[in-house]
Write a structure and sequence with these properties.
By secondary structure, this protein is of the alpha+beta class. It folds into two domains: 67 residues, Arc Repressor Mutant, subunit A, CATH 1.10.10.10; 134 residues, Ribbon (Umud Fragment, subunit A), CATH 2.10.109. The protein has four helices and 14 strands. The strands form three sheets. Strands 3, 4, 5, 6, 9, 10, 11, 12, 13 and 14 form a ten-stranded mixed β-sheet that branches. It has a two-stranded antiparallel ribbon with strand order 1-2. Helix 1 packs across helix 3. The longest helix is centred in the first third of the chain and has 17 residues.
Length: 221
């Protein structure tokens, strides 16, 4: 399978994210309307058609003549994972993270996340709206995909952290004397860093490995 250009990957991300959240592929018009969310400047459906043609030629999608005739190439139902959505996390101050309750599922191709053990959390707030994972910002209402088994945390990783039973997603930095800094990446200056020492009660629940843009507030349970 051939590699994608940056813009081709962005169009492909729109398709897979739309499918994961809404359970069906987008139309060409819906792809065009969604481009600004992915910092993609495309002004015509004709241009979208050309990107879809390239994705098809490179083996990433298959197409039919139907209105929603886009599908991820070679995918069957058993090639998808139902990723559980656990509660929500606040991208500002920490909020309740109800890990024991599954609130819904995202349907995600195994080709996107492989065999990783992951779960999803819906973000609330704007303290990470300038943070980018896989060329996508973490904005209010989006779903972050978290890999809990990843433990080799590096400066710059976006982590889901539970502090005194409350959860937040922030940029991780290792400070002196074993201390940890959790930093917002926000267009809103009201958000401040959170500093943690070894004496504090906290749990790092995993690293954010992907972001799925939210096309609707509701999702199927």
């Amino acid at each position: 399978m051939k590699s994608l250009t940056k813009k081709q990957k962005a169009v492909f991300d729109i398709i897979k994210d739309y499918f994961a959240v809404k359970g069906q592929p987008p139309t060409i018009r819906e792809i065009l309307e969604t481009c600004p969310k992915y910092n993609l400047k495309i002004k015509s459906t004709r241009s979208i058609y050309q990107y879809l043609l390239r994705l098809q030629e490179k083996g990433f999608i298959e197409r039919t003549n139907r209105k929603r005739g886009i599908r991820l190439a070679g995918k069957r139902d058993n090639a998808f994972l139902s990723v559980p959505i656990y509660g929500s996390t606040n991208a500002g101050l920490p909020t309740i993270f109800a890990e024991q309750y599954i609130e819904g599922y995202l349907k995600i191709s195994k080709n996107i996340i492989g065999n990783k053990n992951v779960f999803a959390v819906q973000v609330s707030g704007d303290s990470m709206d300038l943070s980018i994972v896989n060329q996508k910002k973490i904005e209010d209402g989006d779903f972050i995909i978290v890999e809990p088994d990843y433990k080799n945390y590096q400066d710059g990783d976006k982590l889901l952290v539970v502090i005194d039973g409350l959860a937040t997603v922030k940029l991780f930095k290792q400070l002196d004397n074993g201390n940890i800094g959790l930093f917002p990446e926000s267009s809103n200056s009201k958000h401040k860093p959170i500093y943690i020492t070894e004496a504090d009660e906290y749990v790092i629940n995993g690293r954010v490995v992907d972001v799925f843009k939210n096309y609707q507030r509701e999702y199927q349970v």
